[in-house]
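User: Hi! I'm working on a homework problem where we have to compare a predicted structure to a textbook description. Could you give me the structure for the chain below?
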Amino acid sequence: MNTQEIICSMALTRLKGLSLLNARTLLETMGSASEVFANRRDIMSVIPDASNGLVEALAHVDDAMREAEREMEFVERVVLEDAEYLHGVRILGDCYGEDVYLMVKEVEHHV
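Assistant: Happy to help. Predicted C-alpha cells:
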C-alpha cells in the first residue's frame, strides 16, 4: 500500500456522515480508497444505489484529506524515524549482545 492510498484510507474514515461500516462497504465495492476519491464526483455512475448521504459526504472531502495528510506527515516524521532508530539499536544488540542493547537504551533514557 503506497502513501497516497494510506492517506485516502485515513481520510475515508474521517468523512462526516459516513460510518465505518459504510466506508468498508465502499472500499470493498470500489477496490481502494484512491478509487473512491477518484470517482467521488460521479459516484452514482459507479454505484447506482448510492445514498444521498454518501454523495454529500464525498462532496466534502477537503477537510478529511488535510487531516489525513497532517497525520501521515507526523507518522513519517516521528514514528518512522523512531522505528528506524530502534531497528539500529536492535541490530547493535544482535551484533554485540544484550549488554550493548541495554546500555544504548539506558543512555537514550537519560538523554
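For your comparison, note the following. The helical segments are 3-13, 20-30, 33-38, 43-46, 52-59, 62-96, 98-110. Residues 86 and 105 are 9 Å apart (CA to CA). Good luck with the assignment!
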